[in-house]
Structures are given as C-alpha cells and as structure tokens.
Amino acid sequence: WSLPNAERYALQYADGRQTYITESNRGEIKNGSILRLTTSPDQEAERLYSGIQSNNSDVKTDSLKKLASLSQDVTFAQEFINRNGLKQIFYIVEEGNDTGEMLAHTLKAFMELMEHDFVSWETLSAAFIKKIVSYVNMNVVDASVQQLSLSILENMVPTSRLLFELVRKEVTLDRLLTHLQVTNAQLQLKAMALLIALLLAATDAERRDMMDYLREKNIRQFIHKNIIHSSEPLGDEMAHYLYVLQSVSLNLCERRMRTSMDPYSQEQRELLQSLRQTAFESESEASASNFSTERRRSLCAKEFRKLGFVNNSNPAEDLRRAPPGLLALDNMVYFSRHTPNAYSRFVLENSSREDKHECPFARSSIQLTLILCEILHVGEPCSETAQAFYPMFFGQDHFFEELFCICIQLVNKTWKEMRATQEDFDKVLQVVREQITRTLSLKPTSLELFKTRVNALNYSEILKLRQTERLHQEETLAVPVLELRERLKPELLELIRQQRLLHLCEGTLFRKISSRRRQDKLWYCRLSPNHKVLHYGDVEEGVHSPPIESLPEKIPVADMKMLLVGKECPHTKEKSSGKQNKDVLELAFSIVYDVEEYCLNFIAPTRYEFCLWTDGLNVLLGKEMTSERTQTDLDVLLSMELKLRLLDLENISIPDTPPPIPKPPSNLNFCYDFRHAEQ
Questions:
Q1: CA dist., res. 672 & res. 492, Å (int)
Q2: Is 225 left (phi over 0), alpha (psi -120 to 50) or beta?
Q3: Model pLDDT for residues 436-492, shown as the tens digit of each residue
Q4: Strand locations in 528-586, DSSP E?
Q5: Which helix (H) or strand (E) holds 600?
Q6: CA atoms of 571 and 551, how far apart (whole Å)
Q7: Which among 370, 369, 389 is positioned nearest to 246, based on CA atoms?
C-alpha cells in the first residue's frame, strides 16, 4: 500500500489469538482469515515499555493490561524481552506495594512472557521470588493475584533444585492447606497444583516427610469431604492432581515392597514372631516353659506351618522374594494387630481343617500383597495425563493395609467356596484377583461399600460371569454364525463411521501440553456439519461446546494429506523424555495438511477420544478405521445383532454344515395344470 515508514506497521489476525503475521508464519494464513493493519511488534513493545514506566497509574495499568494480552504472541514477546522489559516487570513487582488489578496484569504478563522459554526461570532474583511468596502468604490480597503467584511458583519448582528448596522453605504446607480450604475453585486448583509440583520434585525422604505431615493434618478427609463430594463437579485437572496424590501416596510402599527380609534383623524377626504369638500365645506359652530348646524349636516350626509358611523351620525364607518383600510382612502384622479376632479365626479355622483343605495364611498374604501392588500400580511412575483415582482412597487412612485386611478375608471365603486344596492355590488367587478388579472397576466410594460388593461377588457369581462370557464366545463361533457375521459387517462398519463423524461434528476440548508442565491452556476442534471443514481455536476454561463461528482457524478436509500417530508426530519428537511421556505418546496424533505440509498437533484427553478422533479422521481421508475401539464397537454391535437374529433358535443347536438339499422328485405330477381349469 506504499505506506511511509512501512517497517512501523504489521498485519495481525483480527480474531482469536490476534497473532502477528511474520515471514515465518505468513504461509499459515488461510483463505477467509480477517487481518488488520496495526503497529509493528517492535513499535508496540517500545510503546508499552514506556507505558509501564509511566507515573500516571491509569496509563500504567492500561499498558500492563495490553502487555498481558500481547505477550501471548511470540514475536511481540521477543521484542519486549530484547528491550529488557522483564527487568521493568521485576521492578514493578519488587518495588510496588499495589496488590490489586495492576499487580494482577503484571503477573499475567510475566507468566505469558516466560511461557515462550526465552528466559530461564533460574535467572529470577531472590527479591522477586520473595515478593511472589509474600502474595501467597498474605491474607488480604486479591484472589487473582494469589492464583497467578501460585502458578508462577508451580512453574519454578521443577526447573531447579535450588528453586524447589527456596519455595518449599518459604511456602509452608500449612499455607497451601489454607488455600485448599477456600471456596474459590480456581485458587483451590492452583494450590493443589503447587502442592503436587513440590511432591514430584522432592527426594524420596522429603516426599515421605511431606506426606506424613499432610496425613497428620487430615488432608485426605478434607479432600474426600470438600473436593470429591463437593456440590461442584470435579474438573479434569483436579482429577489429575488427585490421581497423582494417590499415586505418590501408594508409592511410599515401594521401598518396603522392594526390600527382602533380612533373617539377621532383630526387628524383622520380632515382627515375624509376633504373628506366631498372637495366633497361638495362650496354648503355646503355658506349655513351652517346661520344654527343652529343641522341643521349643520344633513347636515353633509346627506353629509356623499352621500359619501357612512354606519353609516352617525358617519362615524368613518365604519373605526373601521382592516384590512383595517386607510389605507382605507389614500387612500380616497390621491384620493381626488391628483385627486380632479375624486373624485368630482365620489361622485357627485353617489349622483345624484337614491338611489338604487348609488355606495357608502366610503364603496367601504374600501372593495377595503382590496382586494388590500390581492392581494399584505401586512403584510405577505417575502418568502425565491420567485422571483415574479411587474415591475410597481418600476416605481412609492406611488405605493399602485396610484393603489388604478385607481382601485376605475374601481369600479365605473364596477358598472355602471353591473347596480348594493346596494344589488349587493359584486358581483361588486368580479368582480373588478377578473379584477385586471387577469390584474396583465399579469405583466404590468407600471401603465399606467395596467390602460389601466384593463379598457379594462370590465364587458362584464369578463362575456365572465366566460361563456367560464363554457361552457367548462358543455361540458366536459356529460356522453359519460366522458367515452371518461377515455378511453383517459392512453395514455395521458404516454405522460406526457415521458415529465417528458425528462425534467429530460435536467436537472435543483439547489441552496444550508444554515440555515443562501440564498446562491449563485449552483449544477446541470440531468438524463442520457438511464434513468439509475442520474448525479450531483457543477457548477459555469452562466453555464446553463453543459454536463453530467462534473458532477462527479452519482446515478444509480436501487439503488434509495424512494422519500421524504416536512417535511419528512432530510434537512428540520434540520432547521425548523417556517413561513420563509414554502416556502422551499413546494419546498424540497429528494431521498433515496443505501443499506446504503443515501439521495440526493433538493430544487427546483420553484413549477413548484418541480412538474416536483417529477413526473419524481416517474416514475423512478415505482410509480404514484402525483403532482398537473400532474392533470392540464392531464386536458389541455384531453380538447384539446376532442375538436378535438368533432369538428364534433358542436351545436349538446350529449344525456346522447346512442340511443337504433333497433330490428332485421322480415325477412332477403334483404341479397344477392351468389348461384343464380353462376347459
């Protein structure tokens, strides 16, 4: 347009994020995008740099507000940081006494500028950090300032050991617990985020101390009552933090689980002896005093055999296997001390049974502890995106031990129901594992409810469930049924395709995950009703299904080239940091589009969404649906359709081969002759 001083101007998107157009991103402009002419990023950075130094508080506040929104743009952020703008922000925070709107804009701008990773968090001054900490520790301060301060500290903690120690020292756990107890859900969430960041950055010993302190302060009861059972529904992010807290708590058992028993440890030997004494104390102590050492030893061996140890002369040998190691011993001792009646009943009942039919307490306990560790993922690293926590975990102190107490009694009950002998040991434990996993999948809200349900799911119920599943399998394997399945498949696959496309039309909320942390930035993507265009754009927290018009970015389906998943995606190649990103790899997919081969990168919120989206995009690209969900959906639909078609054949066995077609008759005189009728 032949503007004088053209370098002072720039083009900027009019909608959405309002990003500046630069040489590097100009190729991404879509047809139909609305652009506006505005001052260039360097001019704007210069103007705001002066504005935030103004003595007029209105000008200063407006400049900071504009800075907070423009700092999301990488080009502007670089210009502002190059002018030493961060130093000015530090000055406003360190020297200012304001705790209202102006400070909130300053901290928001700081967060956005740091998001681009131009500057390391380790370069922050001690004075600045102290000031941020003071906002968290002050009582009379704007809630938005406290939220931003907690977010800043949460970002600092994982970056270096020094910053972790500083934050841990300055922000006490008591203070964080105070923030958790507020009614403001966002403040509660940010406090939980900082608490989780501190726990994850701590060493094992520090984590243990922190968890002990939190237990003293009854954090579990508080979470159970005020967060899980609050009137507000639980958000995805809070669900993730509760999952991490559960995972960290359960992983405290890992050390004992991986430690074998030391037969020379006095403390461990005493624990082992206490099991024997609690069970047989009255009968053995009275008579043992008169016995010789040899006789006493053989009596002990006999009692350890009654307790169910395989190696009764040296029971410590049974606990040498790790996992479950000493954790199994801890569980047995907890059971004997906290429910002595149930413990004595278990041991005495089995010691009076015939040799073959006794249920070995110690051997069962060791195997059950191992099963519980596997089911509850003890010793496994936390997933970055998982949200699956057990509500009953937060309703109970000593959750693992209490769960063991319920399940070991379940072992005895199932053993009796199965009329098992020693040879059936593995079968019984297999049934018990199934009883526990099936009950846990119902997400009981308390251990009492878990106990009721797991006991109701007795051996005969498990047999019925297994038989139903087996019959269903056998029924669907007959040759004519398999032929019918093949005939029905195309029609049902078309139904699944339609469902996938409908799901894409409804759209999904995706999270942006940066290399540093699990971010709370959201964006939405949905397919147009005519299946021609994908619309997407950033949205605010709390927006569930924004209208298509509010999503500024678009990709025509005709421009889509291919779909990438897992390791092939560009955004997973950038940050492959081993085991922690394994779960992100399972949820990542990208669309390659346009001649230039740009990528739109996704990280699905759940595996279910991942399957639906990858299937839907494959349908749009004219390819086969490849997800595991397609197979399960197809199986469900086929089994329902087959059941309906085979209803009339109830209790009739279907032959493998069709019955033979009879030969034609020797004469066809039975045919009706119309000619005679006409005469």
A1: 44
A2: alpha
A3: 999 999 888 889 999 999 999 998 998 888 887 776 666 666 677 778 888 999 999
A4: 533-539, 553-556, 560-565
A5: strand 598-603
A6: 22
A7: 389
